[in-house]
Amino acid sequence: MTYVIAQPCVDVMDRACVEECPVDCIYEGGRSLYIHPDECVDCGACEPVCPVEAIFYEDDVPDEWEPYLNDNAEFFTEVLPGRDAPLGSPGGAAKLGPTGSDAPLVASLPPQETDT
Ligand code: SF4
Ligand code: SF4
Fold first, then answer.
1. CB atoms inside a 10 Å sphere around CB 98
2. Going by C-beta distance under 8 Å and a sequence separation of 6 or more, which residues neighbour residue 2?
3. What pLDDT was estimated at residue 84?
4. Ligand 1 atom at minimal distance to the Cα of residue 47
5. I need a surface site. Which of 62, 73, 74, 112 has the fewest CB within 10 A?
């Protein structure tokens, strides 16, 4: 199981969640952050600190954001624009740093209105 980051993070990316994650499994894309589904230990520490309520336990993702379950997973399994191989399971978001790449659904979105 895993926690998932949905659409409200897109173009916000304030990284509050990254500070809370004990296993460093929240990776930075170009327009959103992504939780590695195999590395997340379901501790829930990230969810309450998100200022835009973008993070959900996978069973609690609202219907409208259900596609983000797959999109988060694809961030780690697909070859994304600007990369020549999947990210795989690099085991450490801080070491990898910002990737500048996004999963297909996030990449397809128009610029998001942000209040923060
Ligand atoms: S639930 Fe815990 S382990 Fe999973 S991404 Fe959030 S802080 Fe990290
Ligand atoms: S705290 Fe929320 S808005 Fe900020 S980077 Fe994490 S998921 Fe995105």
1. 12
2. 35, 36, 37, 38, 40, 42, 58, 72
3. 84
4. 6
5. 62
Three-class SS of residue 47?
helix
Query: Left, alpha or beta for 46 (phi > 0: left; psi -120 to 50: alpha)?
Result: alpha
* 19 CB near ligand 1 (under 6 Å): no
What would the two tokens of residue 52 be?
A: 């835009």
* CA distances (Å), origin 56, targets 24, 82, 97, 100: 17, 28, 23, 23
pLDDT for the residue 86: 87
Rounded to an integer, what distance in angstroms lies between the CA atom of residue 77 and that of residue 80? 9
- SS3 label, residue 74: helix
Cα(8) to centroid of ligand 2, in Å? 8
Structure tokens at 53: 């309520």
Q: How confident is the model at residue 115 (pLDDT cuts 50, 70, 90)?
A: low
Amino acid at 3: Y
Cβ(3) to ligand 1 under 6 A? yes
